[in-house]
Specification:
The chain is α+β, with helices and mostly antiparallel strands. The protein contains four helices and nine strands; from the N terminus they run H-E-E-H-H-H-E-E-E-E-E-E-E. The strands form three sheets. Strands 5-4-3-8-9 form a five-stranded antiparallel sheet. Strands 1-2 form a two-stranded antiparallel sheet. The protein has a two-stranded antiparallel sheet with strand order 6-7. A hairpin with a 3-residue loop joins strand 3 (179-184) and strand 4. The longest helix has 46 residues, at 103-148. It is rod-shaped.
Length: 273
Amino acid sequence: MPLKNDRAMSPDRSTSDKDCPTHCRIRRIRLRGSANRVGTALTRRHLLSIPSTGAVVIAAVPNHAVDPDPARVSGRTDAAAAGRQQRKAGCGFRRLLTRRDATAAVELALITPLMLTLFAGIIDFARVYDQEIELSSAVAAAAEYALINAANINSTNATSLAATLSGIVANTNGAAWAGATVTVNDGATSAVANGTTSSSGTAANANSCWCPGGSSATWSWGAAATCGSACAGGTLAGKFVTVSGTRAFIAIFGNYGLISNMTLHQSTIVQAQ
């Protein structure tokens, strides 16, 4: 549809004679008429210059007229979209290989188990040290009680004294906190395990004097001796009380940490008479 020129522009002097035999003037135009009113999308514009009159003609081609085959257009669109997706995927993979944003996360994942093991080991060391001191204090308290009540080391009171001493060791830091074994002068013996107390031994032996030996793990009483007589180790025969305490320690990581599960043990022997 021929359109009327709006206003003239300067001639395009770059146009060669071969492309335009006669001097061509490209003028700025303003779309008017039914095409502008209806709003038809213009995808291709062909400017035809008529040298004799200088009129400019615009041929408007609607979108659907560019390619009459919608399937072919859709195929080209899908192929282009697929190509863009492939290029994006390739670029993403290359960026993933070159980016270092996750380096700190990987390093943290590698070092975390070691740091947790070390941290748990420090805590377990403090815990085992604290419980060892508490167990030692409980054993010491029982031994002191035996010295104060030395008059009860006889066949009559030995059983009750042994039960009292084992209760001190087991319950000083809490009910059934520790295990305990107390022997009064190779006579009455009281043992506490998991809060249960049991008695054994011969109470009559508490009337005799002894020269015990051995170590804290296994005390040996030997044979009865005259009270006050010299013993082989340089001590004097008398009346003794052995006190032992045990405490089960459970580590944070069990047997897989720096400090594994163990049984704490404290023992002492006192000569009361």
